[in-house]
Specification:
Elements (H helix, E strand, L loop, with lengths): L1 H6 L2 E4 L6 H15 L3 H5 L1 H4 L5 E3 L14 E6 H6 L5 H33 L5 H5 L6 E7 L11 E6 L5 E6 L6 E5 L2 E4 L7 E5 L1 H6 L9 E4 L6 E8 L6 E2 L11 E2 H15 L16
Antiparallel strand pairs: 1-9, 2-3, 3-4, 4-11, 5-10, 6-9, 6-11, 7-8, 7-10, 12-13
Helix pairs in contact: 2-6
Length: 285
């Protein structure tokens, strides 16, 4: 896992402890949630945090910035505190909580293994700073896309993740996820026995660039829809991210500062700049 994280920033994990029953239930409830009428899905913002239900790319200024997808992006604090839902939402919320609770344990285990390989000793950093309540879950649906390949419309635009780890449960037959390595795109083949794990920006900074947060994207399919569920392993907003060795590539920064900078860049530039903003002696206008 450490070698894959250094070379690719991605790996697939089997024997992960998340039962097929939990995964199947998560997928069933996810499909039901997305099959609701548009107005019903928009109403979720009244039950969860504002902006939970998303579609397309609000910041897009041209066609090739459009994400051909819809999603529920849910802070885990909303799931554990939710009440007074109708039958569909109660069932979906319960499935999300069961899935996220199990995957949270896996995330802690994986982060601990990678930290120990990097430091040469055990670390309590992730146990101390990454509680389930600080993490997020995103349910994605990628509808069939009628645009021709030449239009270069993505299900999800090329990006890196602003977290420590992302654990992804994707369709076991419909592919679409691609990662970028050495300027080339590689398809991540579906494996019904595996969960996909990728390194986020925070782990790259924390490991002083040893583990790689690599760009990835989702390509569209003209004929079939695709579903996936992503768990984002994040710290509390006031957690400070700093390298554990010298000389450090990145300056010390908080997760809150990083999130704010990403949002500012997306608002001004239409894209995320990311970690290059936080290198030592970085200069940006």
């Amino acid at each position: 896992m450490a070698r894959a994280s250094e070379e690719w920033g991605f790996f697939q994990v089997v024997n992960h402890g998340v039962s097929p029953e939990i995964l199947d239930r998560m997928r069933r409830e996810q499909v039901k949630a997305f099959k609701q009428p548009f107005d019903r899905k928009k109403e979720e913002d009244d039950k969860f945090s504002a902006g939970t239900y998303r579609w397309g790319t609000p910041t897009a200024t041209c066609l090739n910035q459009l994400a051909w997808s819809e999603a529920f992006h849910i802070p885990m604090t909303d799931v554990v505190s939710s009440s007074s839902f109708d039958d569909v939402n109660v069932s979906c919320s319960s499935a999300i909580e069961q899935f996220a609770t199990t995957v949270a344990d896996l995330a802690q285990k994986l982060a601990g293994i990678l930290a120990e390989k990097y430091l040469g000793r055990k670390s309590t950093f992730f146990q101390d700073n990454c509680a389930p309540s600080t993490c997020y879950l995103r349910m994605n649906r990628y509808p069939p896309c009628p645009m021709p390949p030449a239009a270069a419309v993505f299900g999800l635009m090329p990006h890196t993740d602003s977290d420590f780890l992302t654990i992804l449960y994707q369709d076991d037959q419909v592919g679409g996820l691609q990662l970028v390595k050495d300027g080339k795109c590689f398809a991540v083949k579906p494996n019904p026995q595996a969960l996909i794990v990728n390194i986020g920006d925070l782990f790259q900074a924390w490991s002083n660039g040893v583990y790689k947060s690599v760009e990835h994207r989702v390509v569209t399919n003209p004929h079939v829809e695709r579903f996936s569920t992503a768990y984002f392993f994040c710290p509390s907003y006031d957690t400070e991210i700093e390298s554990r060795c010298e000389p450090s590539i990145y300056r010390k920064f908080s997760f809150k500062e990083y999130r704010q900078q990403v949002q500012e860049d997306v608002g001004k530039l239409g894209r995320k700049v990311g970690l290059s903003r936080f290198t030592v002696n970085a200069i940006y206008s």
